[in-house]
Amino acid sequence: MNSLAQLAQYTDIVADTGDLKAIQQLQPLDATTNPSLILKAVQNGANPELLTRARQWQAKTGYPLVDCLLVSFGLAIKELIPGYVSTEADPSLSFDSQATVNQARRLIELYKQQGISKDKVLIKIAGTWQGIQAAKQLEMEGIGCNITLIFNLVQARAAAQAKATLISPFVGRILDWYKTQQPDTDFTGLNDPGVQSVRQIYQFYRQHGYPTIVMGASFRNSEQIRLLAGCDKLTISPALLTELKDSQIPVPRQLQADNTAVGSSDPSLSQAQFELELCLDAMASFKLNEGIRLFVADQQRLLALLESQA
Q1: Where are the beta strands (DSSP E) in the chain?
Q2: Are 277 and 251 in contact (CB under 8 A)?
Q3: Integer Cα distance of 67 and 35 in angstroms
Q4: What are 93-129's pLDDT values in tens digits?
Q5: Enclosing domain of residue 161
Q6: What's the pLDDT tens digit per position in 242-278?
Q7: How many CA atoms lie within 13 A of 92 on its CB side?
């Protein structure tokens, strides 16, 4: 049994890509996208019919073209997978709860018009306080959310308290920060701070009985993935999925859902507590804001590309 098949015994496999051919070949359960992945797909000129369809929807609905494009890709992905497709809200709205809610409702309405029910879609929202509060409102409306750009426990706690369906802790970006700060430190194996963060969040959720799904993301190598075998879900790039598929390295289960008894309740976080704890974590505050900046930049490049092709 190859490494990917071993991993799939304990963990739901999710493809982190906008490449439809890769999704079709690798056959993951779910798939996630973001502005960077959609930009790359459009730049490569793959599946031009998806852009054509998006322009037709825009003309019909009056919705922003980028919303129509996100759903056009999401619909094509959904045809290839049995589980969730995650569609990212505009990252420039990461500090505006109501605007995020409004866009999420538009995205869900577009999916509904194409015959995809909201229980098959997750709206990806950055793990700011405002983003998490938007998710809280959306979850009350039955719209599932994927809280992304998670870098520390306070973000994970706030997302769980908002009853978010799923969170995406970013393993590789955490490692990147620590390697820059401490270039001579050994971060291999269980010394990897990104791996440690996901394991901490996973165990905390189990200890406090939170049902929010933990989906590790942003991997730099296959060892990080193997060390998180047993996590609820892992979203993995096509290159690393292929590496695992071609490998015979053993993948024993690392995380167990039933090895921790549910303990005391988790005290509710206020915005002030959330902001302070995030501020005091230099890595998390830097990487959260950097991630938003990068996604906003790629969203702007995508918009400019769409305008140039009009």
Answers
A1: 12-16, 30-32, 85-88, 121-126, 145-150, 166-169, 213-216, 233-236
A2: no
A3: 11
A4: 999 999 999 999 999 999 999 999 999 999 999 999 9
A5: 3-308
A6: 999 999 999 999 998 765 566 678 999 999 999 999 9
A7: 8
| CA neighbor of 154 nearest in space, from 175, 132, 134 | 132
DSSP summary character for residue 122: E
Measure the CA–CA gap between 196 and 215, rounded to whole angstroms: 14
Four-residue CA torsion sign, 156, 162, 163, 166: negative
Query: Is residue 11 within 8 Å of 230, Cβ to Cβ?
Result: yes
Number of domains the chain contains: 1
* Active site positions, annotated: 124
Beta carbons of 252 and 227 less than 8 angstroms apart? no
The Cα 235–Cα 299 span in angstroms is 21
> Can you tell me the distance from the alpha carbon of 69 to that of 71, in angstroms, rounded to the nearest whole number?
5
Provide Rg for the chain, Cα atoms: 19
Tally of CA atoms within 13 A in the half-sphere of 74 that contains its CB: 32
pLDDT score for 42: 87
CA distance 27 to 58: 30
Here the CATH number for the domain that contains residue 52 is: 3.20.20.70
